[in-house]
Amino acid sequence: MQTHADPCKQPSLMHPSLAIVKLLEQVQPTTDSEVVTLTQALGRVLAEDLASHVDLPPFDNSAMDGYAFNFDDLDAGTPLTLVGDSFAGHPFSGQCVKGGCIRIMTGAPVPAGYDTVQMQEKVTADGNNISIEAPKAKGANVRYRAEELSTGTKVLSAGTLIGAAEMGVLATIGASQLRVYRPLKVAFFSTGDELRPVGSELAPGQIYDSNRYSIQGLLSRANVEWIDLGVIEDDKEAIRQAFKTAAAQADMVLTSGGVSVGDADYTKQILDEEGEITFWKLAIKPGKPFAFGHLGDAVFCGLPGNPVSSMVTFYKLVWPLIQKMQGLPQVKPVTLSATLTQDIRKFPGRVEYQRAVLSYNEQGEAQVAVTGGQGSGMLTSMTLANCFIILEQDCDGISAGEKVTVEPFNSVLA
């Protein structure tokens, strides 16, 4: 018997975790690099391994303010003789003598012949006679040359995002210039006749374009070079030209709106004509109408028009793409278990990311509550939240007191 597909039956939607895997298969890290100065390196990604050209520390030095001496010269009850001092940048230049010691400051070189430092709080000075409370061991409070790194040791690996700590390490080893991957370029625009610029008068049926500002903030946190192409009217040819302009100057084209099923939602149509679409619509809430494809050499991500949907799909789907394209390793999101403090309603079918507040009770136990209404247009819910409650596809609701999976916001949203 011949069977026919039910025309009313909707195809199953792709789970977001599978979508992320498929997305990452579609992009490659940039290979273009450039040399920048250290002051230009913050937020950039190293394009090559970096080895130290110096020992760290470069010389034996004191870990604290106190007195340096030879451990074997200590004799119970017999003071040492002060013969000089050593300051950071002004080392002791005299001769180390048996039974002698020097006053030394933190970071100052420990001269050859002395091997131990005692903190000044455990020293009694009477003129040049220095009585030292015996230290715990020979070598106490001395930071030895190359104990952290020796010359030629790899300090940072290619693919390292340069943050504040890395800046300090690079300065410590004297790296005034370094090779980094060029910045990723992302062009973005919004579509919709109802959108108006901030500061203008609203006519009936119009709203302010908030998504471009949210996207700009997200892209800035992602350390990319962003190109804002503004708001494009719901005109097929205008949107087509915007796509061509964006693809010609960016590695990624990002849009908000126009990926739904309305008569004026042209994004998918144009992408089919001018490029290619890999998939469209996912089992995610908020954010089902997410599109991905290619426009020439640029990748394309179409975010939904609803503000929260736009932010959630950027965070969960576009952010991992950007990381890979920047040459960064993929980092699995941090999740934890928390006790729900209220009932949550949910219909099976999609993975939900509900905006919530994670806190700890007096016993130090994690608890979580949603921020209120979870409509995809309620952008204020994102400002109140510090995490998502993740409700899996087959979940049909959770009762107060049950454990739920929580994903705290990372630096992109925090």
UniProtKB/TrEMBL annotation:
Sequence similarity: Belongs to the MoeA family.
Reactions catalysed: adenylyl-molybdopterin + molybdate = Mo-molybdopterin + AMP + H(+)
PANTHER family (alphabetical): GEPHYRIN (PTHR10192:SF5), MOLYBDOPTERIN BIOSYNTHESIS PROTEIN (PTHR10192)
Its job: Catalyzes the insertion of molybdate into adenylated molybdopterin with the concomitant release of AMP.
Lineage, opening ranks: Bacteria, Pseudomonadati, Pseudomonadota, Gammaproteobacteria, Alteromonadales
GO molecular function annotations of the record: metal ion binding; molybdopterin molybdotransferase activity
CDD domains attached to this UniProt entry: MoeA (cd00887)
Designated name of the protein: Molybdopterin molybdenumtransferase
